[in-house]
Amino acid sequence: MEDCSGPYCTRSIPAGTGPLCGDCIEQQEAEAVGAALAAQWEAEEIYAAEQAAAGARRVAELKQEDAERATRAEAEAAERAAADEERRRLAAEEDARLRAEFARQNPDLAAFSSQGPAPF
Question: What is the pTM of this model?
């Protein structure tokens, strides 16, 4: 018989069966399984934190894209409004030019003209 070489074990084991008794072997296996589970849980927690961070980054990216899209839409709307205003201004200038030309060509009809838009 030999003494078990477990750190706190005082049992005797048959010679040639190994340095540890059955209880110490089970204890080592349980500790290994526990360490493996702890490592797995830690890896899962790290993965979950990485996924949460990636999700937060994506949300921030989407918000930035929305803000940029809104800014572009506002700029495009302002450009359209400016273009519409320019078209109205040019149309008013052309209307005034045509009215003046008509009044010059037909001075006897000038008394009958209106200040509204041209009928054509």
Answer: 0.51
